[in-house]
What we know:
The chain is of the alpha+beta class. The chain is 17% helix and 33% strand. It contains one helix and nine strands. Strand 8 and strand 9 form a beta hairpin. The longest helix has 33 residues, at 2-34. It starts with a helix and ends in a 5-residue tail after the last strand.
Amino acid sequence: MRIRSAxxxxxxxxxxxxxxxxxxxxxxxxxxATGSPYCGITWGSADxxxxxxxxxxxxxxxxxxxxxxxxxxxxxxxPVNGYSVGYGETWTEGEGLALSPYTAxxxxxxxxxxxxxxxEAHLGTVPYRVGEHAANLLRYPTLRDVxxxxxxxxxxxxxxxxxxxxxxxxxxxxxxxxxxxxxLDVAHQWQE
Length: 192
């Protein structure tokens, strides 16, 4: 009788552990789904990519703080719409060196712009060298660092250090004038 009740108790405990392990992701997803999104933001943190390769060079990188997110703007001297952005290690263009040891933040966004940071004469169009910090992010809630990873064969790379893995969006804006901009917004948090 004792063995039978001990086996029954063990079976109940194991069933609870299996159910808990199987529903752990579901429980956190359900919890995240029941909390209201921060500022109505529903961007997520999955990789984002769009557009094609362009020859219009990068001419400026700037940042901004907003109520619900921090922003990085990449401005080009012509039409550009190609990018790939996602969380993970960022490597320098042409050299393949990891930028994570040189980039502040709890998470790293790898930004690959499908446009060069040099002109037709192969002269640099931004004032940064590989590994240099492109922005002062003092007092930013989310952004921690923007590090230039170089430009090679028409692609330009940046490592964007953020406080943690947070929702982000990337999109293209026309202007000013004949210029274009690729914008990266990173939310301050997941939910209210």
